[in-house]
């Protein structure tokens, strides 16, 4: 595939959606301000350092991951419900997407390339539909030198997982503050950080269709003090609401018996007192 045909960073949402459909990914530039990037990056570094100090850090391929960011700051909850991210998630997986997980990845010098994968590999093949997708927030410039995500453009159209045979990998590059939108079927992985000292930090907001089990068991993982402060919109995004009869608590509310659309919030378990 010619370099000229590959997606470039854009502020045009319509173009980005075309890029995702054709290539399996898009780069949305300028979604986060410099102040937002700095605040998010600093917080990720603080939490990562605390986990290393407690010897609770999770490292693979030379990259440190920080899971369940919702427990580590309001800024991560706000990022998860960023309206552009949710819009692109809904465009991919359909109405009412759920946040499946939100994780930081710190690509360190000397790491190795992540194994190529597709984010919805838990779904039986073939994959005619998108069941999950990722919005990867760049907190540093994504370059081929610092380990930017690599991708096989167009691989989402194969409707299957990687099998070891693929065309030349392409690095997804873009400035800090950008968001990389990934079709859940496209083959990709974290790249090799060839720099001597610089880390590349990204936040991966993974979304799924509302009938899919989430990566993170948010009901069990979310700290009570965070849960108690959630807005109605955040509860829906995290999967606390009933959706089309799924996720009821002790059965659906009795006043839903005459409703065709059995969806909405429920306080039957006493978690929320509005």
UniProtKB/TrEMBL annotation:
Stretches for region Disordered: 251-274
Keyword Plastid attached: no
Keywords: Dioxygenase, Oxidoreductase
One function term, GO molecular function aspect: 2-oxoglutarate-dependent dioxygenase activity
One Pfam family of this chain: PhyH
InterPro entries: Phytyl_CoA_dOase-like (IPR008775)
Domain of life: Bacteria
Protein name per Swiss-Prot or TrEMBL: Ectoine hydroxylase-related dioxygenase (Phytanoyl-CoA dioxygenase family)
